[in-house]
Specification:
Length: 222
C-alpha cells in the first residue's frame, strides 16, 4: 500500500483547490496575516498606477469605489490581480509575471515620469529601485501590512507551498527543516526560498492552481 505524500500549504485553500491535491495528504497552516490601512489618501487623477499584488487592490478598494478612482494607466503583476482589477471596472494597461518584468515594461514607455505604487509594508525593492535608477519618480502608498505568524511545525512534509516571500520568511523564523521541496508561486517568492531550501520550483504562472499543478507534475500525478 502506497503512503500518500504529505503537502503543507502556507495559506488556506478552497475546496476546489484541495480537490486538485486529492492524491496527497494536505495540511494548511497560515503563516502570515494581512491588515489593511484605513487612512489612505489619494489625489486624483492618477496617471500611472502600479499594483504588484491582489492585496494591494483589496486595500485600495476597501476604501474607494471605482467611481472615486481616476486611473489613466494601470500596471500590475499577475493574471489574478488583473482579473480582480477588471472586476472593479478598472482597465489594465499591462500585465507582467514579476515585479522586475513589470518595471521593464514601464520603462518601455518613455513618456512615464512618475508612478503611484500601491504596496504593502514588506514590499520588495526591485520595482522601485529599477524605476528610480531610470529617473522615474515612485510615490509609494502603503495600503496593507503583512504580519508574520510563525509556527513551529512538527511534521515532516514532502512539499511546502509558498505564496509570497513573507510566507517563506515566516516559516524560517521557527523552522530549520528545509529538506522539503519548496513550491513557489513566483520568482520573488522563489528568490526568498532558494538560499535555504535544497529544491525550489516555480509555478509556470503566478496562481494557486499553477502551484498545485507543479506539485502534481513533480510527483508524477499528471
Amino acid at each position: 500500500m502506497n503512503t500518500k505524500k504529505k503537502i503543507l500549504s502556507t495559506k488556506k485553500l478552497s475546496a476546489a483547490q484541495k480537490e486538485l491535491l486529492n492524491n496527497f495528504t494536505v495540511d494548511e497552516i497560515e503563516l502570515i496575516e494581512i491588515s489593511f490601512n484605513t487612512s489612505i489618501k489619494l489625489t486624483n487623477p492618477i496617471k500611472n498606477a502600479v499594483f504588484t499584488s491582489k492585496n494591494a487592490v483589496i486595500g485600495v478598494f476597501s476604501q474607494f469605489s471605482s467611481e472615486e478612482l481616476q486611473f489613466e494607466n494601470v500596471y500590475c503583476v499577475g493574471d489574478k490581480t488583473a482579473q480582480f482589477l477588471e472586476e472593479k471596472n478598472v482597465k489594465v494597461t499591462v500585465i507582467a509575471h514579476s515585479a522586475e518584468e513589470l518595471a521593464d515594461e514601464i520603462l518601455l514607455n518613455k513618456n512615464i515620469e512618475e508612478v503611484y505604487f500601491f504596496c504593502g509594508n514588506l514590499r520588495r525593492n526591485e520595482l522601485p529601485e529599477i524605476l528610480t535608477e531610470n529617473n522615474i519618480k515612485v510615490n509609494e502608498i502603503e495600503v496593507y501590512s503583512t504580519n508574520f505568524k510563525p509556527v513551529k511545525i512538527k511534521n515532516i512534509y514532502d512539499g511546502i507551498l509558498f505564496f509570497s516571500p513573507s510566507s517563506v520568511k515566516s516559516y524560517l523564523l521557527k523552522n530549520t527543516d528545509t529538506q522539503s521541496v519548496a513550491f513557489c508561486i513566483g520568482n520573488t517568492t522563489a528568490a526568498e526560498a532558494i538560499d535555504d531550501f535544497e529544491n525550489v520550483f516555480v509555478a509556470d504562472e503566478p496562481t494557486v492552481e499553477n502551484v498545485i499543478k507543479s506539485v502534481n507534475q513533480y510527483f508524477d500525478y499528471e
